């Protein structure tokens, strides 16, 4: 708490608000003047209340806290608060009682002058960041799975498991709807219990990069296995030189369907780093549920209608093939759920 009040008055208020426990946690502006910037930075963490301060003192306090690696937020409403609001990482001004100078120097303006709104804003900001992160990781993982599928097949010397129109369909429709739905995820109610994120932290920190690589590899491997199954079901191998066109189309159909189902079900797993989908709620994000249903429906449409089936060079799978498609499609989701069990166990051990 930073105030211009007398030291004893400031402590009485701070004690009532449970900010400070003893008078030793209060320092005045006069005492600050007797310290150099380096000396003050070394002891600033000892104090919870700063009394009898001037605008210059406020700036000095902010800079001392920032020099220790803290992310500093400053609230104020007057003209004399403007320098410290500008110096802080996040300046917060009052929207009703605040002066225009304070509002101009701040990064956030409280329209209702309610400090509780700051907590709500932080929670919303964290959820927005998490949703953006989930969307990016989902898209990169899916695209990596497609790249691995095509790259491995060409490297071995096989025919391409997916043709251009199938890849275009996946990227424009099957990927897009779940990605948009993830961006509208309601977020975790426990988001404020998490530690603040380091501002210098990589976007892919916390296992994000590993998640992309492992998820992309898994989706790519499953797609390649489905491609091989399409050959073997007709008595051929991807290594055969002479393969009927309908067999190749059937193998591509299997790869196409497995890749789509993997991506659709994987979107459920990406919603939280450690919580199970059953803890979050399978249907808690109605937009994502709708996106998955829509994706499956669109796949069925292009399979059932002869014109679109011919345009995409697809073949109608039999019952065994559908079992393979659904089973393979669920593997990334199941794998992530199992991996989350180990993450939760590790977090639990750390708390103990």
Give a brief rundown of this model.
The protein is mainly alpha-helical. The chain is built from 15 helices and five strands.
Topology:
Blueprint lengths: L6 H10 L9 E3 H5 L3 H7 L5 E3 L3 H13 L5 E4 L5 H6 L2 E5 L5 H6 L2 E3 L5 H41 L7 H11 L1 H8 L24 H25 L12 H25 L7 H4 L5 H19 L1 H6 L7 H33 L1
Parallel strand pairs: 1-2, 3-4, 4-5
| Basic shape | elongated
What's the total number of strands?
5
- What number is the mean pLDDT? 92
Strand pairing plus helix content: what structural class? Answer: mainly alpha
Q: In CATH terms, what is the architecture of the largest domain? A: Up-down Bundle
- What count of structural domains? 2
Within CATH, the superfamily of the largest domain carries the name Calcium-transporting ATPase, transmembrane domain
Spatial arrangement of strands, main beta sheet: 3-4-5
| Largest beta-sheet details | 3 strands, parallel
* SSE succession: HEHHEHEHEHEHHHHHHHHH
CATH topology of the largest domain: Calcium-transporting ATPase, transmembrane domain
Helix count, DSSP H or I runs of 4 or more residues? 15
- The span between the termini is 34 Å
Give the strand content: 5-15%
Rg estimate, integer Å: 29 Å
**CATH class descriptor name of the largest domain:** Mainly Alpha
**What's the assembly state of these chains?**
single chain
Poorly predicted tracts of residues: none
The helix content is: 55-70%
Report on this structure.
The structure is a single chain. α6 (100-105) links the parallel β4 (90-94) and β5 (108-110). The chain has helices at 7-16, 29-33, 37-43, 55-67, 82-87, 100-105, 116-156, 164-174, 176-183, 208-232, 245-269, 277-280, 286-304, 306-311, 319-351; strands at residues 26-28, 49-51, 73-76, 90-94, 108-110. The protein is mainly alpha-helical. The chain is built from 15 helices and 5 strands. The mean pLDDT is 92. The chain starts with 6 loop residues before the first helix and ends with a helix. It has 2 domains: 7-117, 3-Layer(aba) Sandwich (Rossmann fold), CATH 3.40.50; 129-351, Calcium-transporting ATPase, transmembrane domain (Up-down Bundle), CATH 1.20.1110. The strands form 2 sheets. The protein has a 3-stranded parallel β-sheet with strand order 3-4-5.
